[in-house]
Amino acid sequence: MIEVPVSLFSLRPIPVGGLALAGVVAGYPATSTAGPTGGATKHDASDGEKATPVAERPWIRRVVPARNMIEIGVYGGAFFAADDHDFYDPATAPQKPLWKVGIGDWGLRFAYFPLSFLGLEIEGNVVPTFARTATNDPVLLYGFRGHPILRLPGYRISPFALGGFGLMGVRSAMDVVGRDVDPIAHYGVGVELFAHRFVALRLEGRHLMGAKAARQNDVTHHFEVLFGVSFTYRVPKRPEPPPPPDRDGDGFVDAKDACPDEPGVAPDGCPRRDTDGDGFLDRDDACPKVPGVAPDGCPIPDTDGDGILDPDDACVDEPETKNGYQDDDGCPDELPEPVKEFSGVIEGIEFDFNEATIKPESKPVLDKAIEVLKEFPEIRVEIVGHTDNVGTREFNLELSRRRAEAVRDYLVRGGIDPSRLRVRGAGPDEPIAPNDTEEGRAKNRRTEFRILTKDDEPDTGPKDRAKGQAQ
After folding, report:
1. Residues in a beta bridge with 425
2. Are both 56 and 150 inside the same structural domain?
């Protein structure tokens, strides 16, 4: 028995300058990966299997059939020809039987295995032999054939089966068997040993079926026993192209993503937006840029643009007249005549000199104002006190404010809600006549009522009442 040294199939890592060169272990390439101690760990890149240290694999699985494998081999063996063969030229009939075993059966083969268990193979062979004549004349058989191969994957010892068709011809002297070519079918079984990543050994037996001599409708049988050596090579896989970019990682490739930098959803890869922030997503919002309400996300319309929404507007197509009277109904209107009488300078309100005491003769005017304000409860009024320029500005501002408050207090005592009233002391700052004559100064000493509208800020206390005085 010839023992093959283990070192032939197992090359250990050789440390070189702190690195490890990993050789081939049982036919598999080893990739060097620095371990904790600076050594190398060998990993296998076999088809369909996770990288595993070769040393941990059982011997039977260290080298196995792989997909995309090419085998180029030579073989030799024995060809057993039937006596009633058809390897002859009919002109030389009757045919002469050949030696039972010629001088070997020699050939070349090429196989490609797209799958680890299935491949296609073609072969060409020659069989030098002799005719059984008195002079043992030489005869050369030759053939070309192809077949699929089905083999057991996953193990370095791989049984296989094959079957196919081809042509087989003969060449010899014309007085022996002449020349001829005939179709021939074959099938067989065998076993292949993957001794090394690049070397496989193969043993098989085949049954060949060809025409029987001079009787083309009958079959005769030949046999082969073959031993071969193949050189194996695994075609590298083409690297898969990188996936198309998807910068935002939302599953929509950038080329089809309308928002490539923002994760989104179908149909366009954009996020669900609510541009106007009204709670209606843009895709469901009939007015995506204007905040709105149900059912369509659009704002409630204000057809006449008066600030009163159509559902609350009694005059949808006519804007409200904002004059302080019925400003909530959305319709144009005018101040009632009684109210007009108490808008602007109110004649007849007199005060003691340099005091905020209302003179008794002023009461009829103020009582009339109370009646009008009670008749029109939606009216709100700002009471503004004015003075001439005699005296200091600070004194006049304070005096005008106190006089306006005195008027307000009288109205409140008469039953007017103080929330409807606002006061302001203008002092000498808003004259309506020149202050260089007594007549002009008398006109400037006045009390005004200004009708407040919804746009006017309500009086919120002493701070508002003093507004305009501290200049």
Report:
1. 385
2. no
Q: Do 228 and 149 fall within a single domain?
A: yes
- What is each CA distance from 365 to 300, 341, 350, 369, in whole angstroms? 45, 11, 10, 6
Structure tokens at 163: 């079957």
- The CA distance from 311 to 300, in Å, is 8
Per-residue tokens: 436: 């260089």
Which distant-in-sequence residues (6+ apart) come within 8 Å of 102 by Cβ? Answer: 78, 79, 81, 127, 128, 129, 130, 141
Give the predicted TM-score (pTM) of the model. Answer: 0.46
User: Is the omega angle on the peptide bond into residue 338 within 30 degrees of 0, that is, cis?
Assistant: no
CA distance 90 to 219: 17
Give the span between the Cα atoms of 20 and 33, in whole angstroms: 9
Bigger pLDDT: 275 or 147? 147
**What domain count does the chain have?**
3
| Token output for 164 | 């196919």
Q: At what angle do helices 363-375 and 393-413 cross, to 10 degrees?
A: 60
Indicate the range of 277-291, 341-355, 408-422 predicted with least confidence: 277-291
Q: Which neighbouring-strand residues pair with 70?
A: 112, 233
Per-residue pLDDT of 427-468, as tens digits, reads: 999 999 999 999 999 899 999 999 998 777 655 444 444 343
